[in-house]
Write a structure and sequence with these properties.
This protein has ten helices and six strands, in the order αααββααβαβααββαα. It is α/β, with parallel strands linked by helices and 236 residues long. The chain has a six-stranded mixed beta sheet, with helices on both faces. It is globular and about 60 Å long. The structure holds uracil.
Length: 236
């Protein structure tokens, strides 16, 4: 194949025209069920690759937060999840082991998930900021904006149907508003990405760490969780 044929082929493949370009003949009688499994496997493979690329980009990104933190904290759970949970930033325990929501707030999050019949490995859990801020301080607006593209890329890769925002920082980042949770919670918002051909229904509610300090807000949090559960049940 000469160079210009190769370029042409690459151009056609990049344009998505791969139907007539397979290396081997298509087996039209292959079991359809197997086929969809295989496609799913390939899709997840691709998602994993793309998430790993985001991780590499965050590692390369220069920020003072990186100098004071130990481990990059990216995600836990399922890259093919219907529901994505977004927190604020890693705390001490998360920073030590590199997994989000493993400390006290994480234990409460696990209980919140269980209350609506979800397991951690069924959802995708991440944070707005991926390095622990010194002394667990709240990320600044500049830091939120600095890390937002990485969060947006994760949403584009995972393509969840629903996003559950845990706390004011996640709400500010994703809903682009400083409006408080008291006003934002209890209703569905729409998140749109220019790379996804769908609306992602998004709800903002209280952060588990806040609920540990202020248990009187657990009732409102439970109502928000039930709104999510209802959406998931209605799909069945
Ligand atoms: N709080 C967060 O917002 N994220 C974590 O991962 C842990 C605690």
């Amino acid at each position: 194949m000469n160079q210009s044929d190769k370029k042409n082929l690459e151009f056609i493949q990049n344009a998505g025209v791969s139907y007539f370009l397979q290396d081997s003949p298509r087996n039209w009688f292959e079991n359809a069920k197997n086929n969809s499994k295989k496609e799913n496997f390939n899709e997840n493979d691709q998602k994993l690759k793309s998430i790993n690329e985001v991780i590499i980009d965050i590692q390369k990104h220069q920020t003072p937060l990186k100098n004071s933190a130990n481990k990059l904290v990216m995600y836990d759970g399922n890259i093919d999840a219907k529901v994505m949970f977004v927190g604020e930033a890693p705390g001490r325990e998360e920073d030590e082991i590199g997994v989000p929501f493993v400390g006290r707030a994480g234990k409460l999050l696990n209980k919140m998930l269980a209350a609506i019949k979800l397991r951690r490995d069924e959802v995708y859990i991440t944070n707005v900021v991926n390095w622990r801020p010194p002394n667990n301080r709240t990320p600044t607006d500049e830091e939120i904006l600095e890390f937002l593209p990485y969060l947006q890329r994760q949403i584009d890769i995972v393509e969840p149907d629903y996003i559950f925002l845990l706390g004011g920082v996640a709400a500010k980042a994703i809903l682009s508003t400083p409006v408080g949770l008291g006003k934002l919670r209890g209703q569905w918002h729409e998140y749109k990405s220019m790379y996804l051909n769908k609306i992602i229904y998004t709800i903002a509610s209280y952060h588990p760490a806040f609920l540990l300090r202020s248990p009187q807000y657990k009732k409102a949090s439970w109502e928000d969780l039930q709104m999510l559960q209802k959406k998931l049940n209605d799909e069945k």
